[in-house]
TrEMBL record:
CDD domains: Thr-dehyd (cd01562). Keywords: Magnesium, Pyridoxal phosphate. The keyword Magnesium applies. This is Pyridoxal-phosphate dependent enzyme. Pfam families: PALP (PF00291).
Length: 314
């Protein structure tokens, strides 16, 4: 399988530059003391649409042919990819059709509408989402942009670690959360190409641990059921990302929901950062395995900050 190269990732970074923020890399001496290591947080909670997803969606939309652009783009998502694709389409001046389950949070629907996306609601099952998406594509001729199982999206997500290593090249470890695997695969590709000596480690919730189990087994083992506060990581890992993860990720560590909530709280209190549960998972996994990271320099990608402030878990 041919993975995106460093020149593909650099080209993606150049392409999406006008459409994204170069997010800051922040540190906290208080958190370093708690963790017993030096952590550099790449704050994608400050990204457009509040999450790293803006990168992959922008890259995928900008790579479309003029004919494809004229018919717009479509996807199914109840989360950050929905808003990211609607925004990328809006910036490109093309239509977007977003299939969302009827129980998707109102805040997510509002974001999609705010970016000019046309929402098509369906029953809250994967089968209903996929069937409805097929109908939308057949009706509109729009191009389906998957949330993670697509190289153009992975290339875009890889630009996050590219920026992190430009800012902080001398890291021992880079950590990212894993759900569908687009961010983790992109991170692993960027890190491997820039400095293969740096370890890549993922954080995953115990209540949706398919990537952890799949990584151990060497084949994709989907989640039978999921139960975690980290709602952005409920998806089973994708085929393309998993191929990269098998080759270039060193390990996947788990965190429980109470550990994730504690990590969120630390980031809120110590750094005044609004971080969604999924974004706190790598820190939670680090703190759950503190001896493993003692004295090291760790880059952590905080994947997003789209949290419903009326439902904070503390």
């Amino acid at each position: 399988m041919n993975f995106p190269t460093l020149s593909n990732i650099r080209a993606a970074h150049e392409r999406i530059q006008p459409f994204i923020h170069r997010t800051p890399v922040l540190t906290s001496s208080a958190i370093n003391e708690i963790a017993g290591c030096k952590i550099f947080f790449k704050c994608e909670n400050f990204q457009k649409v509040g999450a790293f997803k803006a990168r992959g969606a922008a890259n995928a939309v900008l790579k479309l042919s003029p004919e494809q652009k004229s018919k717009g783009v479509a996807t199914h998502s109840s989360g950050n990819h929905a808003a990211a694709l609607a925004r990328a389409a809006s910036v490109a001046g093309i239509p977007s059709y977003i299939v969302m389950p009827s129980n998707a949070p109102e805040i997510k629907k509002k974001a999609v509408r705010g970016y000019g996306g046309e929402i098509v609601e369906c029953e809250p099952t994967l089968q209903a989402r996929e069937t409805t998406l097929q109908e939308v594509v057949a009706r509109t001729g729009a191009t389906f942009i998957p949330p993670f199982d697509f190289w153009d999206v992975v290339e875009g997500q890889a630009t996050c670690a590219l920026e992190l290593l430009e800012a902080q090249p001398d890291l021992d470890v880079v950590m990212a959360p894993v759900g569908g695997g687009g961010l983790l695969a992109g991170t692993a590709l960027a890190v491997h190409n820039l400095n293969p000596k740096i370890e890549v480690i993922a954080g995953e919730p115990t209540g949706a641990d398919d990537a952890f189990r799949s990584f151990q087994a060497g084949e994709i083992l989907p989640n039978e059921k999921t139960q975690t506060i980290a709602d952005g990581l409920l998806t089973t890992v994708g085929r393309l990302p998993f191929a990269v993860i098998q080759e270039h990720v060193d390990s996947i560590l788990l965190a429980t929901d109470p550990q994730i909530v504690d990590a969120m709280r630390i980031l809120f209190e110590r750094m005044k950062l609004v971080v969604e549960p999924s974004g706190a998972v790598p820190l939670a996994a680090l703190l759950a395995n503190i001896e493993r990271f003692a004295g090291k320099r760790i880059g952590i990608i905080i994947s997003g900050g789209n949290v419903d402030l009326g439902k904070l878990p503390f």
